[in-house]
Amino acid sequence: WRDRVRTCLLLNKVDRLIVELELTPMEAYERLLKIVEQVNAVNQMLLSEAAMAKDADGAEAAAEAAPGADEGIDLAGAELEFDVAAEEAYTYSPERGNVAFGSASHGWAFSLGTFARLIASKMGAKPENLQRVLWGDWTFNKKTKRVQRRNPVDAKSKPMFVEFVLQQVFAVYEATYKSLNPAVLGKMQAQIAGWKEVDLERLAAGQSAVRELMSRWLP
């Protein structure tokens, strides 16, 4: 933070949301959304403290130059100088590409750009446009084939991150972790290039199968 190094936020151990907490894709999305918001809140606090400290230093210098001046920050009269560039740089937003999700123990990770490139051709969309709507309150209308703002009251509508990202990840775990589902894995193998050379018949249910398939799909 002090060196102003631009960073990327990696949300690790996503696998635990699936195999340990047994959350639904929607519940997992809400958990991840909350974490990103909490991290951004901490960064905003640090930026505010930096702005206050900078203004306080200026007030102290002015007091030394003019003895008798009041100490502290005049919130009514002074304009705090916030570093807008730093605020943008340290705001984590998956659609901007500075947030990644993954599981170090199972050897996989992805950003929104990863899935945008994977599904763009199927949806007839540009990857860069798709990346902008794969996070937040956006849903895909199957009738109109268009993206629209999601109505939170509508329980049937799903955020695109849930429908096009998490449900796909959850499907792999559900078909491999506790027991193998050859039918589901066979359908997915036909669509995932990294699985073409995998012999599904030799896989045994459990972490080893998850690690092999997920690391080939989302290395």
From TrEMBL:
Gene Ontology cellular component terms for the protein in this record: cytosol; ribonucleoprotein complex
Molecular function in Gene Ontology: GTPase activity; ribosome binding
Any one GO biological process: cytosolic ribosome assembly
Entry-linked PANTHER family: ELONGATION FACTOR-LIKE GTPASE 1, TRANSLATION ELONGATION FACTOR-RELATED
Protein name, per record: Elongation factor 2
Annotated source species: Zooxanthella nutricula
Lineage, broadest ranks: Eukaryota, Sar, Alveolata, Dinophyceae, Peridiniales
